[in-house]
Write a structure and sequence with these properties.
Blueprint lengths: L1 E2 L2 E2 L8 H19 L37 H8 L4 H8 L3 H7 L7 E4 L7 H7 L7 E7 L12 H10 L4 E5 L2 E3 L14 E3 L4 E3 L11 H4 L5 E3 L10 H5 L7 E3 L10 H10 L6 E3 L7 H7 L7 E5 L31 E4 L2 E4 L19 H4 L4 E3 L4 E5 L2 E4 L4 E3 L6 E5 L6 H10 L5 E3 L7 H10 L4 E3 L6
Parallel strand pairs: 3-4, 4-5, 5-7, 6-8, 7-9, 9-10, 10-11, 11-12, 12-19, 19-20, 20-21
Antiparallel strand pairs: 1-2, 13-14, 15-18, 16-17
Helix pairs in contact: 3-4, 9-10, 12-13
């Protein structure tokens, strides 16, 4: 009745007309669907690989999917996982990829270049990708390479004009203080990190951070880790930052004996400071006692330097180290007056900062200054055989202290544990690894403060 799928014409067959109409309708619907301009439910057919019916089909039936065959949306989803250096390389391939890599979604929020050292020339090329939505910029250089040059004024001008930065992280770059001043940085940043940066041509009559409190009123976090050029007198300026909550000065080797600066800075400034990192510095009991007057402090990190580090006048001074000699005060040294505080700055080319290793050892005296304590009662009146004394007056220095790290100080003993157990009501974490506290002292502290996590040299590894 039928041959090769085509019905044989038989007018006398009653089912022939019904079958013929159904067959023609199916063919018309198939042609109509193929010519339709409406999109497919999933994606366009031109980007789909044909299905291989049998595993034994030849390779000629396989359509290779190339990068440029993907849609822009798919390319953007892939590029979100790439580093900025990779995006720059893709932008140089062709015009289409260059347009896709400029999409604002790839350069919004946080842009982190720290996966590899970035040359200044590359940074200036990346500026064209930045958008006003770029709020966090993180870059890293390489001080050991001769190819890396210091940051330029044009780079700072470009990011100020293009981005609305709230975080700027610059690590291991050379900064010329004659060309780049603190007022050249973006004004509205809330977090600034100069970790490991090297500063040249510092002025001797004022701090590099002079008037920083007026230029960056929203700054809440300042990281100066491994900044060997940081001098103690800069504490005066930094303490005026009204919103500053986090200050990290770990491994600032020039930060040694500075009782005068620390006392004034903590008495009149640091009104909002919560996190203070002073690890691997030359500060001693006197300086730590000054910081104990900071009532808003919640996290304090202290760690003894591994060894006394001589600091040269210049970072690459080939001459061998010689211990500093005592110099008499030279009346020719310049001074300047900042409101009501007179600062005497020592010329860094004359005296090599060097701290005494014995003096920088923190002891129980500094730890017992933290928390709250009872002041000595004073005699109010003495009438014949009757003595009137003042009632106990409890002074709270750091009522909000939650985390304390005191590592590798041999002069910290069980006395500090006894004091903290009684006078640190908000303490949650304590690290006394490397100190001379005993196992009995640690057990006593745990029994009195069961809610505090304590780390010591007696912990099982």
């Amino acid at each position: 009745m039928f041959q090769a799928g085509i019905p044989n014409y038989r007018s006398s067959d009653p089912y022939y007309y019904q079958y013929f109409v159904c067959h023609m309708c199916k063919r018309k619907m198939k042609v109509k669907r193929s010519k339709s301009l409406s999109p497919e439910p999933s994606s366009s057919n031109e980007y789909k690989r044909p299905r291989i019916a049998n595993s034994g089909d030849s390779d000629n039936d396989y359509l290779e999917c190339r990068l440029l065959n993907l849609s822009d949306d798919v390319l953007l989803n892939i590029m979100k996982f790439l580093h900025p250096q990779d995006l720059m390389a893709l932008s140089l391939c062709c015009q289409r990829l260059e347009q896709v890599t400029r999409d604002r979604t790839l350069w919004s929020n946080c842009v982190d270049f720290r996966t590899a050292p970035t040359l200044l020339e590359d940074l200036e090329k990346y500026v064209k990708f930045f958008r006003p939505m770029t709020t966090r910029l993180r870059i890293r250089g390489n001080l050991q390479s001769n190819k890396h040059r210091g940051l330029s004024q044009s780079f700072f001008s470009a990011i100020r004009a293009t981005c609305q930065l709230k975080e700027l992280t610059m690590e291991e770059y050379d900064i010329d203080a004659d060309k780049i001043q603190i007022t050249d940085f973006p004004k509205m940043i809330e977090k600034l990190s100069l970790k490991g940066c090297r500063m040249h041509h510092l002025q001797t009559d004022k701090s590099y951070f002079f008037r920083m409190d007026f230029h960056m009123p929203n700054l809440t976090c300042l990281i100066l880790s491994k900044c060997n050029w940081f001098y103690p007198h800069s504490l005066m300026v930094i303490s005026k930052m009204v919103k500053l909550k986090e200050l990290r000065l770990d491994s600032c080797y020039r930060l040694g004996e500075c009782v005068a600066y620390a006392s004034l800075a903590t008495r009149f400034g640091f009104k909002s400071l919560e996190i203070l990192d002073l690890r691997d510095t030359g500060l001693g009991d006197s300086e730590i006692c000054c910081f104990s007057s900071t009532k808003t402090l919640t996290h304090l990190y202290l760690e003894c330097p591994r060894s006394p580090r001589p600091v040269y006048c210049y970072e690459h001074d080939p001459r061998p180290y010689r211990p500093p000699q005592q110099h008499s005060t030279d009346p020719r040294l310049r001074v300047f007056e900042d409101q009501n505080i007179l600062e005497l700055l020592i010329d860094e080319r004359r005296i090599v900062p060097y701290f005494d290793f014995e003096r920088c050892l923190v002891s129980d005296r500094a730890i017992c200054a933290l928390g709250s304590y009872v002041c000595d009662r004073t005699i109010l009146n003495n009438i014949q055989d009757m003595i009137f004394v003042e009632v106990d007056r409890r002074v709270v220095n750091n009522p909000n202290l939650k985390e304390l790290v005191v590592r590798n100080y041999p002069r910290v003993t069980n006395q500090s544990l006894v004091h903290l157990a009684a006078n640190a009501p908000s303490l949650e974490y304590l690290d006394v690894t490397g100190t001379t506290v005993t196992r009995e002292g640690v057990e006593m502290f745990k029994s009195q403060k069961p809610g505090v996590t304590i780390l010591s040299s007696f912990d099982e590894t």
